[in-house]
Amino acid sequence: MQFHELTLFDARKLLDAKDISSVDLVTALLERIESCDGEIQAYITVDEKGALASARKADERLANGDSTPLLGIPVALKDLLCTKGLATTCASRMLEGFVPQYDATVVEKLKESGAVILGKTNLDEFAMGSSTENSGFHITRNPWSLDHVPGGSSGGSAAAVAARLCTASLGTDTGGSIRQPASHCGVVGIKPTYGRVSRFGLVSYASSLDQIGPITRDVRDTAIMLNALCGHDPRDTTSANVAVPDFTAALDEYETQGLKGMVAGIPKEFLSVKGLDSDVEKAFYHSVKQLESLGVEVKEISLPHTDYAVAAYYVIAPSEASSNLARFDGVRYGYRDTEAADLIGMYKKTKSKGFGDEVQRRIITGTYALSAGYYDAYYGQATKVRSLISQDFSRAFEGCDIIISPVAPTPAFKIGENVDDPLTMYLTDIFTLSTNMAGLPGISIPCGHGKTGLPIGFQMMANRFDEMALVRAAYGLEQTLALENCFPEM
Amino acid sequence: MEAAIPPLGETFGGFLADFFMKITKKDIEYIAHLSRLEVDDSLVDKFADQVSRILQYIDKLKDVDVSGVELMAGAALSTNVFREDIPHTPPGPEITLANAPEREDDFYMVPKAVG
């Protein structure tokens, strides 16, 4: 096996046994990026020098008998996370040349755990999109088929893991932006419970919905990454001060106890969605059968307000975005237009030239929804519908441990297919965004391939702070499905 | 003084407006001004059409009976967050102003703000 193919877990074993060095691993991945990323374009910035320097340090520590869970492991970060001294662009012209003066808490935590930061990955500008086509710099291609999108907005992070251009990566998920690209690229992605992972140093899109999470090759690696990322942070007031379990213990729980006795609910409203692809449906029910064979009781449940989730989301997220993105005014950081002679003119020219179309569209929609005379009808109504969506989940979890569904209605779509039709693009988020509305954790794991060979993901959702149930069930399904062909040929 | 919000849905007034919220070019220009955006002429029509379609879809929220429902503004745990009021050393101007597009000494420079 070549170094770039190693999972995090296997790389850890080889590093600890001194069979390989971190420099070997990082060099192999940098070579792989050099040879493959011209086509995929998963990265915005590759920090070759910084990565090799960190790898050398990691090797010194390993030589001294030191070991931390991520020591010497090369990871890639969605370019929405602040990295001290390393450009952070949010895939926007607005932040070209911006160099943060501090690390996001998750970046600090990865570094403390010994990880080597390989670089920053592409995304839809400010995480607004479902295909990574809205990047201000370049599109990213799906490693399984270069004329298809990788999904989004964490498309670069998912494509980088799928194409073996890093060992693991971080994404962010506001309405499905970790799970949907993970599904489209055939990798594992988890959005933890809101508050589980600190958002300090994450450039805000919709603060009440945003959450950071890992994208990995398999479920075991997800558990290892969660251990490094989760925990209370006083610098993020929405960060939850709750105990963090050892997520790898959920793998042992599966090994010793299986999944017998677990109850999984299928929301009937999800499966009656128009436009659900037959391959996605087939792969979903095949996985349901596997879960049943493991002793999981599967039953139908109802989330009655599902039909309103997309509408409520596309009021709340743009409303928060219109407020959050007001900070990019050309005064303190990022791009500034120098044409205008007065301050208001400078703001306007800076924003209009710095932001791409989708960002401007969402700012306009959000400003409209929050404006005098429309606030109650749009934002007020949407937040009440959000309550009802959250209550639907609470009721459902009284009768089941996990809720299962497809991740997206179709496998990855073609580049350019939905680009002029924002509403159709928004509707592809139907299965994922309810969990963000309710603050729940959700995971996507590969469950098969469609006729065209593109991967299909399976989603599991759990009650707040019950990522253990997700890791255990996802690991069980992954082991049972034992998918072959889970590495795109490149 | 900001101008009053212009009447929305000039094309579809009254009863129809409840079902089809048509955003006009003028609406887009006004909202853009509130957002401090200068939407390019070539984009105004496109945005008016796209935002109309989005709002038309969002209008389905009106069908939900929310009487007696509390709003949910966030998903954080509903507990107050307190911390000790301990002074910290600020990072200083070199770090704070490191990314300033234009500065003079320890100040951000901006174009004329008062006429």
In summary, what is this structure?
Chain A has 490 residues and is α/β, with parallel strands linked by helices. Helix content of chain A is 40%, strand content 13%. Chain A has an eleven-stranded mixed sheet with strand order 1-3-2-4-6-5-10-11-9-7-8, sandwiched between helices.
Write the layout of secondary structure elements.
The complex is a heterodimer of chains A (490) and B (115).
Chain A: H1 8-16, H2 22-40, E1 43-46, H3 48-63, E2 74-78, H4 105-112, E3 116-121, H5 155-162, E4 168-173, H6 179-185, E5 188-191, E6 211-216, H7 219-229, H8 249-257, E7 263-267, H9 268-271, H10 278-293, E8 297-301, H11 309-324, H12 343-354, H13 357-370, H14 376-397, E9 402-406, H15 422-427, H16 433-438, E10 442-449, E11 455-462, H17 467-481
Helix pairs in contact in A: 2-3, 5-6, 7-17, 8-17, 11-13, 11-14
Chain B: H1 14-17, H2 25-34, H3 41-58, H4 93-96, E1 103-104, E2 107-108
Antiparallel strand pairs in B: 1-2
Structure overview:
Chain A is an alpha/beta fold and 490 residues long. Chain A has a domain of 329 residues: Amidase signature (AS) domain (Amidase signature (AS) enzymes). Chain A has an eleven-stranded mixed β-sheet, with helices on both faces. In chain A, strand 2, helix 4 and strand 3 form a beta-alpha-beta unit. Chain A is globular. Chain B has 115 residues and is mainly α. Chain B has a domain of 50 residues: Orthogonal Bundle (Histone, subunit A). Chain B contains four helices and two strands, in the order H-H-H-H-E-E. A two-stranded antiparallel sheet of chain B has the order 1-2. In chain B, strand 1 and strand 2 form a beta hairpin. In chain B, helix 2 packs across helix 3. The N terminus of chain B is likely disordered.
